[in-house]
């Protein structure tokens, strides 16, 4: 089992898990509190979901070395998952789902490249999770500049 | 190849679960939303029955007639996109209630207009002519939001009384 979930597969599975959890929370919240003003799908939100899944994948699989092909495959899958999840949650029609997929793939790729760099630097540190967590937090703060850019 | 298939299966499974959850919760969510909508309408106008009325106003996008007043749905441009606001207005043109239905204003700034209540409270009883920062306290650091809400209130009152909110001219006896 652990052999299958290596490379891009671990990252794809983590993203699927994060999207499933956040989508389920959203649907439950909308049912329980109908007057809830649901936040828009923004670049900032896509970055938060991407970073959460990358941290989760790192926690699951440890610091294994990954290739550029792994990154490309993970990005393509992330685009599919973002589009699919937005459509499945009823947040988007077919056209908006494609927009979510394109934006999600782009944001995920940017986060993945930055995260991989930080991950490699972190291998020599006393506790590898400390710089990763601080990077994820800082990257999330940096993504706030896109807060006004709605995707859907 | 095997890893790619497993990854795709994970994503497909997540999307299927979400779609199933959406389908399963959809009717309950719709029923609760309808009940909440009606309850909010009653609270804002003290009316019982609501009859939809035609509107061609740029700001007032929907209107319901009720006993002794109106419930109007206004859409104005805020700082972070459109603000959909329900405004209850009596037949005399006075605001009886306000409720944000959709907004994406900045937390800690524009959202304070909705969460702190002080800004919206000062609109109750007004009959239009509201100018944020002039005859109504504006939210500090959220001028655009304050003006958008004032514009919505003025448009709603104008819809009922017939006052042209852009020129302040009366176009209908109201």
Task: Describe the protein's architecture and organization.
The complex is a heterodimer of chains A (152) and B (174). Chain A has 5 helices and no strands. With 152 residues, chain A is an all-alpha fold. Chain A has one domain (8-146). In chain A, helix 3 runs antiparallel to helix 4. Chain A is globular. With 174 residues, chain B is of the alpha+beta class. Chain B has 2 domains: 1-45; 51-161. In chain B, 41% of the residues lie in helices and 22% in strands. Chain B is built from 4 helices and 5 strands. Chain B has helices at residues 2-45, 112-115, 118-121, 143-161, and strands at 51-53, 60-66, 69-78, 81-90, 95-102. Chain B has a 5-stranded antiparallel beta sheet. In chain B, a hairpin with a 2-residue loop joins strand 2 and strand 3 (69-78). The longest helix of chain B has 44 residues, at 2-45. The radius of gyration of chain B is 20 Å and the shape is globular. Chain B starts with a helix and ends in a 13-residue tail after the last helix. Chains A and B meet through helix 1 and helix 3 of A and helix 1 and strand 5 of B.
Structural class of chain A: mainly alpha
Summarize the main sheet of chain B.
5 strands, antiparallel
Number of helices of chain A: 5
Would you tell me the overall average pLDDT of chain B? Answer: 85
Shape of chain B: globular
The run of helices and strands of chain A is: HHHHH
What ranges of chain A have pLDDT less than 50 throughout 5 or more consecutive residues? none
Greatest interface? A-B, 38 and 36 residues
Count helical runs of chain B: 4
Uncertain regions of chain B: pLDDT < 50 for 5+ in a row? 167-174
Describe the oligomeric state of these chains in a short phrase. Answer: heterodimer
Q: Which structural class do the helices and strands of chain B define?
A: alpha+beta
